[in-house]
Amino acid sequence: MEEDEFIGEKTFQHYCAEFIKHSQQIGDSWEWRPSKDCSDGYMCKIHFQIKNESVMSHPGASTHGQTCLPMEEAFELPSDDCEVIETAAASKVIKYEYHVLYSCSYQVPVLYFRASFLDGRPLTLKDIWEGVHECYKTRLLQGPWDTITQQVFNRPMGSSHLESRSRGKEILFEKEHPILGQPFFVLHPCKTNEFMAPILKNSRKINKNVNYITSWLSIVGPVVGLNLPLSYAKATSQAERNSD
Amino acid sequence: MAEELQSMLQLPPSGAAGGEGLTEVSPETTTPEPPSSAAVSPGTEEPAGDTKKKIDILLKAVGDTPIMKTKKWAVERTRTIQGLIDFIKKFLKLVASEQLFIYVNQSFAPSPDQEVGTLYECFGSDGKLVLHYCKSQAWG
C-alpha cells in the first residue's frame, strides 16, 4: 500500500479547516468541535429535514378481532375514525447529524451520523437504511461483505433486498462515538483507501492539490443522505489560483 | 430502462447542427465502434431543437479502469450521474458488485441525483463537460 493514501491526524485537521472555510463562505454550517482536552476534534454538521409520509392504515388489521372475515367484508367495514383513513400526510422533522472523525487505527477519516425526531426519538438503523439511495443499497448489499446487522433485518418484512446474509463485516453499523460516547451509525473505514487511492494518485500525476476531506465526503456522504454542494468541487482550484 | 438509456446516450450524427464542440473529435464520432449493447441507435437523427437539450460529455478513465472506446457522448441535460454510472457500467461490462465513481475536476464525486446539465453549467468548458470515471472495489 502506498504511504500517501493514508493521512496523518494533522493533515486531516488541515483539510477539515480548509473544508470548513469554504463551508462558511457558502453557509453550509459545518463546524469544528474540539474534544475536551483540545488535542483532537471533529467536524460536525446538523441539518433538519422535513419528511412527508403517508400514514396507511389497514382495515383488516383494526381491532375487529375476527381474522376469518372475507376480504370484501373487511374493506366494507365503515368507520369514521382516523385509524381507517387510508392516507394522511404527516410531516415529520428529522434532525440529522454528521460527524467527521479521524481514525488513528485506519489513518483515514470516518463518517459518523445519527438521526432523530424532534422529540428525541432516534431513528433506527432500519429507518436510516430506508433513506439510503437505491443505488447504494445494491452496492452495499452485494459482494463478500455484509452490511446489515442481523437483528434489525431478520424480521420478515417481505422486502427481498433487505434479506441479510451474514458473513464477515458490516459496512453500516452502530458504534459509540469516540469523543461523545453516544451511539452513532458509522460507515466502516476499511475500504476508504480503495476509492481514495485513484484520486490521489491521479492528482499527483497532474500536479493538482486535492482536499482529501472534500473528495472523501463527496463519495461517502451521499450513501447516508449527505450531499455536498457542487461549489466544494471548485473550492480547491480557487485556492490554488488565489495563491499563485 | 436499458432502452431508454440507449436512446439517450447517442453519438451525435456527423454534421449535426450546433456541434461547435464536436468538430475536433469528429474522427472519433463519425466512425463509432458501438459495443455489443448497441448504445448508439443507428439512423436516429437528433432533431435540431434537441441539440440544446443535450450536452457533450467527454469520459476519461482513471487508474486501472478500462478505457471506453467511445469517449464522447451527447447526453440529455436531465440525465443523472447515477444514470450515467449505470450506462458506463453496462458499456464496460462491469459486474454489479464493482463500483463505478464519476468525478468532476478529477476529485469531486457529484451526488447520484445530480443532473449532468447542472454539472455542465458549473464545470463545462470548450463546449463540453469532462468527467473522470473510476472503477473500485469499495464496499464490494
Automatic annotation (TrEMBL), chain B:
Membrane topology value: Peripheral membrane protein
Keywords, comma-separated and alphabetical: Acetylation, Autophagy, Cytoplasm, Isopeptide bond, Membrane, Ubl conjugation pathway
Principal subcellular localization: cytoplasm
The name this protein goes by in its record: Ubiquitin-like protein ATG12
Spans annotated as Disordered: 1-52
Family affiliation: Belongs to the ATG12 family.
Gene3D superfamilies the record matches: Phosphatidylinositol 3-kinase Catalytic Subunit, Chain A, domain 1
Function: Ubiquitin-like protein involved in autophagic vesicle formation.
Highest taxon of the lineage: Eukaryota
Subcellular location: Cytoplasm; Preautophagosomal structure membrane
Record carries keyword Membrane: yes
GO molecular function: Atg8-family ligase activity
InterPro entries for the chain: Atg12, Ubiquitin-like_domsf
Cellular component aspect of the GO annotation: Atg12-Atg5-Atg16 complex; autophagosome membrane; phagophore assembly site membrane
CDD domains linked to this entry: Ubl_ATG12 (cd01612)
Pfam assignment, any one: APG12
Compositionally biased region (Low complexity): 23-42
Classification via SUPFAM superfamilies: Ubiquitin-like
